[in-house]
Amino acid sequence: xxxxxxxxxxxxxxxxxxxxxxxxxxxxxxxxxxxxxxxxxxxxxxxxxxxxxxxxxxxxxxxxxxxxxxxxxxxxxxxxxxxxxxxxxxxxxxxxxxxxxxxxxxxxxxxxxxxxxxxx
Length: 120
Description:
Blueprint: E1 2-11, H1 12-21, H2 24-29, H3 32-40, H4 44-65, E2 77-81, E3 87-91, E4 97-105, E5 109-118
Antiparallel strand pairs: 1-5, 2-3, 4-5
Helix pairs in contact: 1-4
Domain 4'-phosphopantetheinyl transferase: 4-112
Cofactor: Mg(2+)
Function: Transfers the 4'-phosphopantetheine moiety from coenzyme A to a Ser of acyl-carrier-protein.
C-alpha cells in the first residue's frame, strides 16, 4: 500500500547562489558520505546538479512522509548510489518501508519524486 508520494523541483541557479554565498549550505544538506561523493565530482555544474538533486529528493521525501523538513532533518535522509549507480534512499526511522526515488536534471532544474510504500 502506498503511504505517500512527494515531488520537488528546484532551480539550479538558486542552488549555485547558495553554494557561492554560504559554505555551510553544503554541510547542512549533505550527509558525510554524500559530501564525499560531492567532493569527488569534477566541474562546478556537475556539483550544482548533484546538490540540487539531493536537495529536491530530500524535500520530496519529506512531502511524501507528510512531515516536511523541520520535524525531519536533511541529515536524517541519505541518498547514495546503488551497485548500478541509481539513487538509493535511506531514512532514519523508515526502515520498515519501501522507498522509491527518481532524480532528474535539465539545463535549469533538478527534480525528484519519492514514493513510500508500506512493507507490511
